[in-house]
Design a protein that fits this description.
single chain; 20 helices; globular
Length: 418
């Protein structure tokens, strides 16, 4: 009996130690590591070091000179007009904090937002939507597994701001990805409990898993702190010092930037009528040009589980009180005409996305009308020189809570009604 008592006491003390260490890790990050200029510097270069964590993002949400941008591969494919380049040095009083890389679609991002919880209340952020995500298969198994964060999932399920129904729906969706859950049996069991129909047994299971989940979460918080410290130590002290200084505003002339970006695009797309970036065209298109004709003719952008994932993401943003702007990126019209995705299929996707955003009352910047504009996209998917200038101006207006000028041909929902 004494041995059982001693073992129980040891487990209790061990659990308290883990929980204490998790709290201390966050406290250490707040007081020691995240000094002025660190968040601003870290956010200009997307890094896996903080994609699955929360520490730097939480600090960024509470920084007055930072605007968080969530997307996928466009976050890390930089050119001279990318927000990371154009807003470096805070010429209009803020810098972007970039979150995303290839495969960061709605499901990984909704877990991210669920984890941030109360920190999102009243905070501005921007979510980029790529129509290519909305293929009939939704996010692939391997892609989600590579972007899955146990820490963010625990935080989401334990988030008191989210309704039981939302957690239930998230859990059901996560059960579609057994490979992502196999390395954390406790989390897998907890997700199964949240996916059950509501009754007293389900409630009892949730209560039973709570202390073990908090212990696991504390360990993951420590891991997040360790990764964050290592990442911060690699940042340039010179850049940190520069970004800690007040901004030196030199507001860009958007018209001159548009003209400059057009000239830049013209010099880099001389090889093809689709105005694809020359280096991309020669490497990926020219060797297979005839083979690629109508290669996407069977591709569909509806139905897709991605729309369900986006709906869950917006529910979380609504329940946490965030103030998002959604940006719909256009597809490359000439390219997809050639590879066979009909304009009607693309238009249907844009309209569905716009309707979903508008129904939630969120702000929308819809650039889908620019499918055929030269130098808007540098390849089939990614914004190029002209495209980024229009998006940059939108981000600047959103940050400063200004109305969008009618001369910018966006298809917006709420932006002109403030």
């Amino acid at each position: 009996m004494k041995k059982v008592y001693a073992l129980g006491l040891a487990l209790f003390l061990f659990s308290l130690t883990i929980l204490f260490m998790g709290s201390m890790a966050q406290f250490y990050m707040e007081l020691v590591t995240i000094r002025p200029g660190v968040v601003e510097t870290a956010g200009l270069s997307p890094s896996p070091a903080y994609f699955g964590g929360v520490i730097l993002q939480r600090k960024a949400l509470h920084a007055s000179d930072v605007l968080l941008l969530y997307g996928s591969s466009e976050m890390s494919l930089l050119n001279d007009y990318h927000p990371a380049k154009l807003f470096a040095g805070k010429p209009t009083h803020f810098v972007p904090f970039l979150v995303g890389h290839g495969g960061s679609q709605d499901l990984p991002h909704l877990l991210n937002f669920g984890a941030l919880g109360n920190d999102l209340k009243g905070k501005k952020l921007v979510v980029f939507l790529s129509p290519q995500w909305f293929s009939t298969g939704g996010i692939p198994q391997s892609t989600f597994a590579g972007n899955f964060s146990p820490l963010q999932t625990y935080e989401t399920l334990l988030n008191p701001k989210l309704t039981s129904q939302t957690k239930h729906d998230i859990a059901i969706r996560l059960l579609d990805f057994p490979n992502a859950l196999k390395d954390d049996p406790l989390l897998a069991q907890m997700i199964r409990a949240y996916a059950r129909d509501a009754n007293w047994k389900t409630s009892a299971l949730k209560v039973a898993y709570w202390p073990l989940a908090k212990i696991n979460l504390a360990g993951l918080i420590i891991e997040d702190a360790t990764k964050t410290v290592a990442h911060v130590h690699k940042l340039s002290p010179k850049l940190i010092a520069q970004n800690a200084l007040p901004s030196s505003p030199s507001s860009p002339s958007w018209e001159s930037l548009r003209t400059e970006a057009t000239h830049k695009g013209a010099t880099l797309t001389t090889s093809n009528a689709m105005t694809l970036l020359d280096t991309y065209y020669y490497k990926y298109v020219a060797p297979r040009f005839q083979e690629l004709r109508n290669s996407d003719q069977w591709a569909k952008l509806y139905p897709s589980q991605e729309y369900h994932d986006l709906e869950l993401l917006m529910q979380i943003l609504k329940q946490t009180g965030a103030q998002p702007l959604f940006v719909i990126i256009p597809m490359n019209g000439p390219w997809y005409d050639y590879t066979g995705i009909p304009a009607s299929e693309r238009k249907g996707c844009y309209e569905r996305l716009a309707t979903m955003v508008q129904q939630q009352g969120f702000e929308l910047a819809n650039f889908s009308s620019h499918e055929y504009e030269q130098y808007y996209l540098q390849d089939p998917w990614h914004l190029a020189w002209r495209g980024w200038v229009d998006v940059d101006e939108t981000l600047d207006l959103f940050y400063h809570e200004k109305k969008y000028p009618e001369k910018i041909n966006f298809n917006k929902s709420l932006s002109n009604t403030r």
